[in-house]
Amino acid sequence: MDILELAKKIEGLQTASTVSKILNVNKNTAINYISLLRKNGYVKETSYGSRKIRMYKISTLKKEDYGNPGFYEILDKNSKVKIYSLYEKDKIYGKELSIEEAIIRAVKTEEFRVILASLGLFAKVKNWVKLSDYANKENIGRKVGALYDVARIIIKLKRIDKRTRNKLLNSQVKNKFIIQKIKSKDLKGIEKIWNVYIPFNKSDLEAYKE
Amino acid sequence: MITFQQQIEFFNIVGKELNEKVECVAIGGNAMMFYGFKKLTKDVDLVFTNREDLNKVKKALYDSGFEEKTNIKIFKNYEVIDTKPIMMEGKETRFDLFCKEIICFKMSDSIINRVKESHEFGNFIIKVVSPEDIILLKSATERIKDREDALEIIKNYNVNWKVIIEEALHQTELDKPLFVVFLYEFLLELKEDFKADVPDNVLKELLKMSKKEMVKRFKKKKIVK
């Protein structure tokens, strides 16, 4: 069978079992076909579904690697909470987007799921001073500090040094809402410390425990 | 002609020249290069949603050594089109900068929602339209190379023909009634002359829509007379 025709036939998200059903072949042959497609660049990514079943994203657009991972790719790679990326490919050229910059971008989107996913990025921060500088430059220092405290509820995080924490605490923000008109019901303590409104309740953070 | 790598270098230069973030949509052969359908392109076609952003990129290109050209005719009846692109010519390539409209085609929200890729070059953010939309946009011109490009996509990609029909209908609603007629002729030619794998039911549907639009146009003319 022509490889391109094969890719066209089973384009989309598949498991070995669905491929075997579509092509009416046994599972071993299906796995061989997937391997063939991977060698030819048609398998864009492999992920794991529930019960560790492998899922393959098959696309007739051949995978070509250029540029560095963009915002959505970084978020998807580094956070336990997955988001539906707006793009199939999201790349950045001439520089690498750091985790610190990705957190700032996430807060600036003012989108619930994106900010929720960005909490996972705090575990990967290497340079708190850099994070604080970026945040203060965008006038979102206290928002970032508050989200760090929220992230600490559900993820084991390194402590921010006192100086950086104070810098964030004393920073200016344009408005107190991380997401417009949304306040937390049960994270009032953190809201009070940072004087901003947190868009999550404790139940929202359960996504990190699943 | 430029390669994909050269195109990236040009975008990087523009990104460095820009002082603020500017977003635009890649639509032509340059968009095809992002998907790997093409190795070389003659011109870089970009669409902007506002004139301000277009002018910023025009200035960035000018500052990078590109010059504005006004005497290039890039398609038939070019003189009568009132949405001509700004053409910035360099040594190896030319940037065609469109604002909202591409000849007889409007950059609709549905096209923006179907964008598949985003590429960031400093302050210059390029979104790449879906392969289906590249085919649609190619039908707006009469150049032979556009037919060859569309054929290449149809050969190598699982085209969602439903998207093509829906967008054609959407364009008629956006006051671009003739687009569906051009699209029908374009796909018919691809099927008959280039042996492209265009489903018959797609052509049938487009023919029906074209007839409807032509009758509407005919009636309108009669009323005016």
Which tags fit this structure?
heterodimer, A: 210 residues, mainly alpha, Arc Repressor Mutant, subunit A, 2 domains, two-stranded antiparallel sheet, 5 strands, B: 225 residues, alpha+beta, Beta Polymerase, domain 2, 7-stranded mixed sheet, 11 strands, globular
Report on the architecture of this protein:
- Chain A is built from ten helices and five strands, in the order H-E-H-H-E-E-E-H-E-H-H-H-H-H-H.
- Chain A has helices spanning 3-9, 16-23, 27-39, 71-78, 99-109, 112-118, 128-137, 141-154, 162-169, 188-194; strands at residues 12-14, 43-48, 54-58, 68-69, 89-93.
- In chain A, the strands form two sheets. Chain A has a three-stranded antiparallel β-sheet with strand order 1-3-2.
- In chain A, helix 2 crosses helix 3 and helix 5 runs parallel beside helix 7 (128-137).
- The mean pLDDT of chain A is 90.
- Chain B has one domain (2-224): 2-Layer Sandwich (Beta Polymerase, domain 2), CATH 3.30.460.
- Chain B is 51% helix and 19% strand.
- Chain B has helices at 4-17, 29-35, 51-63, 109-113, 131-138, 144-156, 161-173, 179-194, 200-224; strands at 2-3, 22-26, 40-41, 43-48, 67-69, 86-89, 94-99, 101-102, 105-106, 117-121, 124-128.
- Chain B has a seven-stranded mixed β-sheet. Chain B has a two-stranded antiparallel ribbon with strand order 1-3.
- In chain B, helix 5 (131-138) packs across helix 7 (161-173), helix 7 (161-173) runs parallel beside helix 9 (200-224) and helix 8 runs antiparallel to helix 9 (200-224).
- The radius of gyration of chain B is 18 Å and the shape is globular.
- Chain B starts with a strand and ends with a helix.
- Strand 5 (89-93) of chain A pairs parallel with strand 10 (117-121) of chain B.
